[in-house]
Amino acid sequence: MSYEPYATPEYYTDTYGGTLILENDIGRALQIASRHIDSLTYNRIVGRGFSNLTRFQQDIIQDVVCQQADFETENADDINSILSSYSINGVSAQFGSSWNVFTDKGVAMKRDLYALLCQTGLCCRLAR
Question: What pTM does this model have?
Answer without folding.
Answer: 0.85
